[in-house]
């Protein structure tokens, strides 16, 4: 079955509408600096942004880790073509086309992962979360950003129930019930009390 593109629930936001994601008015409710600050990556961190789209957050991430490495990943090559111009002056940024359920990186190779308004679009959410945990080093962080303006909005309680069984523990929520970020820490293997016997 092919990927279902569109703006409705369960569909992948199409590259044809990508420029709407760069609307300056978005900064009122979702300023890039606030989101990147919530990620809390060190200046020398290796950071992965999954579902980077046209790169609304990408330049700010690159500025935040001047001595590190940034990998911008998206399912659609057209999105990566748009983001390329926005990060063309950053020599520590790499663009990768991939499926969020099949991350083509080694185990424990990233310090931080950013996922904005994307998890709800992924049919295999559990597989995606397992892959994020696999490529994060123990103690690494993943930040999810959700908004009720998005058709695939995930409530805070539902997000926590989805994420924690995959080897994460909640660090903090920021924002409101309808517009928030949630930062989780990757716990060392065997330390996660919420894992089921199948997940250990």
Commentary on this structure:
With 200 residues, this protein is an alpha/beta fold. It has a single domain, classed as Vaccinia Virus protein VP39 (Rossmann fold), CATH 3.40.50.150. Helix content is 22%, strand content 26%. The radius of gyration is 16 Å and the shape is globular.
Which helices and strands occur, and which strands form pairs?
Layout: H1 32-39, E1 46-50, H2 58-64, E2 69-74, H3 77-86, E3 93-97, E4 110-116, H4 125-135, E5 136-147, H5 156-163, E6 168-175, E7 179-186
Parallel strand pairs: 1-2, 1-4, 2-3, 4-5
Antiparallel strand pairs: 5-7, 6-7
Task: Briefly characterize the structure.
This protein is α/β, with parallel strands linked by helices and 200 residues long. The chain is built from five helices and seven strands, in the order αβαβαββαβαββ.
What do we call the CATH homologous superfamily?
A: Vaccinia Virus protein VP39
- The CATH class, by name, is Alpha Beta
Shape type: globular
Architecture (CATH level 2) name: 3-Layer(aba) Sandwich
Estimated structural class: alpha/beta
Q: Residue share in helices?
A: 10-25%
In the sheet with the most strands, the strands line up as 3-2-1-4-5-7-6
Return the average pLDDT rounded to an integer.
Answer: 89
Topology as a string of helices (H) and strands (E) = HEHEHEEHEHEE
Q: At the third CATH level, what is the topology name?
A: Rossmann fold
Number of strands: 7
- The share of residues in extended strands comes to 25-35%
Q: How many domain regions?
A: 1
Q: What low-confidence regions span 5 or more consecutive residues with pLDDT below 50?
A: 193-200
């Amino acid at each position: 079955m092919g990927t279902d593109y569109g703006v409705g629930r369960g569909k992948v936001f199409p590259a044809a509408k990508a420029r709407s994601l760069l609307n300056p008015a978005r900064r009122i409710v979702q300023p890039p600096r606030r989101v990147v600050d919530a990620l809390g990556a060190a200046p020398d961190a290796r950071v992965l942004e999954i579902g980077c789209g046209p790169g609304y957050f990408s330049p700010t991430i690159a500025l935040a880790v001047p001595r590190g490495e940034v990998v911008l990943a998206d399912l659609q090559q057209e999105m990566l073509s748009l983001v390329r111009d926005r990060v063309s002056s950053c020599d520590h940024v790499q663009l990768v086309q991939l499926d969020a359920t099949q991350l083509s990186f080694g185990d424990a190779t990233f310090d931080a992962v950013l996922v904005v308004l994307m998890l709800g679009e992924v049919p295999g959410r559990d597989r995606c979360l397992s892959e994020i945990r696999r490529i994060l080093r123990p103690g690494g962080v993943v930040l999810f950003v959700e908004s009720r303006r998005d058709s695939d909005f995930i409530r805070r309680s539902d997000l926590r129930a989805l994420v924690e069984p995959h080897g994460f523990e909640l660090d903090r929520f920021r924002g409101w019930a309808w517009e928030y970020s949630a930062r989780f820490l990757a716990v060392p293997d065997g330390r996660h009390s919420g894992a089921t016997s199948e997940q250990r």
